[in-house]
Design brief:
about 25% strand; alpha/beta; Rossmann fold; binds hypoxanthine; globular
Length: about 280
């Protein structure tokens, strides 16, 4: 299903009516990272089901609420949970909330996710600053920009050479150093899911240069960059990807949510530190 300007404007209008001022920063919280929204001094809280055309969150660990208010002095709008392609939504639906944020005035997007660690140095609980991504899903045609171009937001053929803003990354690194939170930096690869990867998948993803693997973020960042937003991406490493057949252990969603409890305070500290520097 395509998303039209009318749909975006209808959704944005419902949110705008609840706000006293435009929002500047958008935050998307991934699996197990809902707690970051509790830190917001909230002016409005909307369930996704209240916002026209918003895809309701169906995955455990994704609350499905939009929280608008102040965090570290910045006017923010936070998505507590997101939609994924594997839930059955089109890529355009998955990314509609980013369009709505753009319509509300958001110019900076902070995206977070839970990801599997491909880089052998990574351990559960580590945080990776996303330096770049590989859009495996986009390369195979599942691109949220497919269909008529929304000229009001950006060009037909958007540049993706600087998808993740270098100044925002530097700000995050500075926070990491100050707060003694070790920050890795690397490449995130997005697969459609919902199954986790086979060991052969994992070996392939390492060869093509990916450090972390997940099932989100890339569609939202693609749309954000199309609309000219500056993007900061943070992956919480929730599990170490299994790259050998027959090795004991398996990857589970419970493991992902469990690691979120460790990761949420670290990711919150980085986000708050970056917001203070804006
Ligand atoms: N693979 C894909 N997506 C994920 C993983 C993983 O290992 N962990 C959290 N999200």
């Amino acid at each position: 299903m395509n998303v039209t300007l009318e749909m975006i404007d209808e959704a944005a209008e419902v949110v705008r009516r609840r706000l006293s001022a435009p929002v500047r920063v958008g935050l998307i919280l991934g699996s197990g990272l809902n707690a970051v929204a509790e830190a917001v001094d909230a002016e409005a809280v909307l369930s996704y089901t209240e916002v026209p055309h918003f895809p309701p969150a169906t995955v455990e660990g994704h609350v499905g609420r939009l929280v608008a208010g102040r965090l570290e002095g910045q006017a923010v709008v936070v998505m507590q949970g997101r939609a994924h392609y594997y839930e059955g939504y089109s890529m355009a639906q998955v990314t509609l909330p980013v369009r709505v944020m753009q319509a509300l005035g958001v110019g900076i997007l902070i995206v977070t996710n839970a990801a599997g660690g491909l880089n052998p140095a990574f351990r559960p609980g580590d945080v990776m600053l996303i330096r770049d991504h590989i859009s495996l899903v986009g390369m195979t045609g599942l691109n949220p920009l497919r269909g008529p171009n929304l000229d009001r937001f950006g060009p037909r053929f958007p540049d993706m050479s600087c998808a993740y803003d270098s100044d925002l990354r530097a700000a995050a690194r500075a926070v990491g150093e100050r707060e003694k939170i070790p920050l890795y930096e690397g490449v995130y690869v997005c697969l459609a899911g919902p199954n986790f990867e086979t060991p052969a998948d994992i070996r392939f993803l390492r060869i093509i240069g990916a450090d972390a693997v997940g099932m989100s973020t890339v569609p939202e960042v693609t749309v954000a960059r199309h609309g000219g937003m500056r993007v900061l991406g943070l992956s919480g490493i929730s599990n170490v990807a299994i790259s050998e057949e027959g090795v004991a252990g398996e990857t589970t969603h419970e493991e992902v949510l469990e690691a979120g409890r460790l990761l949420a305070p670290r990711i919150e500290a980085i986000i708050r530190g970056v917001l203070r520097q804006l």
